[in-house]
Specification:
This protein is an all-alpha fold. The chain has 11 helices and no strands.
Length: 296
């Protein structure tokens, strides 16, 4: 009778252990539950051994089987659930950070958020498939790091967009703007490579901060060097022309003033053309036209 009772208890224990193995729990969570099953089985076996009547054996068996059957196998892993909750918090915070990047277009913001969702999905799948608590921890950490990098890359894009807008609004020539934009692009590339290579959230933050600071620090001149040089050369031509008129003893004071007024008019026209020029060639041509008019 006792052997039959023990077998019934053992069968219940086996069924419970099978249910534990089939669950999505981590190895550590499964081990803790199986220990409960083992402890319960040992206690029941002891009770059966101590029983002195068949009725007592049956009672011990019934109580033991009920105890083992009553050990709850969670449908979800507490360790994994916490990791997923923390991951979702990271996702929410990351998206809020993206929304603060005011230089990004709606399309750029959405693209960054889509990347965050993609990285979060990959992390969640890794968490779901994790076997041990350490596997869960590592999967969550990898997911958070990927999301941090998405935020950092968006911050770099935000700095780039802001600097490019500043360059675009400046009075520089197209060639001068291109040179500055190339510098911005290079700094952004370097920053993103540093972000990609980062292995900790702290490294990501450092790379992001350094990249944003460098891009923001690229100076956009208030004046175009090409235009400033052209205007300086034009002013020199004006001064030389007026000096030449003053040396012309055949002209009356009125004729000299009229000639100087014409030079000023031609110089003004040339300077306006230089100011509105968009390329270095446009500046050069405007200056040349101005000088030619003054020489006449």
């Amino acid at each position: 009778v006792k052997e039959a009772a023990k077998k019934a208890v053992a069968d219940a224990a086996t069924a419970k252990n099978n249910a534990i193995d089939a669950s999505n729990l981590t190895d550590e969570e499964k081990a803790a539950l199986k220990q409960k099953v083992t402890d319960a089985q040992n206690a029941v076996d002891q009770a059966i051994d101590n029983a002195t009547t068949n009725a007592a054996v049956t009672e011990a068996q019934t109580n033991g089987v009920n105890t083992i059957n009553g050990i709850e196998v969670p449908t979800t892993s507490a360790t994994k659930e916490k990791a997923v909750t923390d991951l979702n918090t990271a996702v929410d915070n990351a998206k809020k950070a993206i929304d603060q990047d005011n230089n990004l277009t709606d399309e750029q913001k959405q693209a960054a958020k889509d990347q965050i969702d993609s990285d979060a999905k990959t992390a969640q799948e890794a968490i779901d498939n994790a076997k041990t608590n350490d596997d869960v921890k590592n999967a969550a950490a990898a997911g958070t790091l990927a999301i941090d990098k998405d935020v950092a890359n968006a911050a770099i894009d935000n700095a780039v967009a802001g600097k490019k807008a500043e360059i675009s609004k400046s009075p520089l020539t197209d060639e001068e703007k291109t040179a500055l934009n190339n510098e911005v692009a290079q700094q952004a590339k370097d920053a993103k490579e540093a972000i990609k290579a980062a292995t900790t959230p702290e490294d990501v933050t450092t790379a992001q901060g350094k990249g944003v600071k460098t891009i923001n620090g690229i100076e956009v001149p208030a004046k175009s060097n090409a235009k400033e040089k052209a205007i300086t050369d034009l002013n020199t031509a004006v001064e030389n022309a007026k000096n030449a008129i003053d040396q012309d003893s055949n002209l009356s004071d009125e004729e000299k003033q009229a000639a100087k007024d014409q030079i000023d008019s031609d110089a003004k026209t040339a300077q306006e053309a230089i100011d509105t020029a968009t390329t270095n060639d446009d500046v050069k041509n405007a200056a040349a036209a101005g000088t030619l008019a003054i020489d006449k």
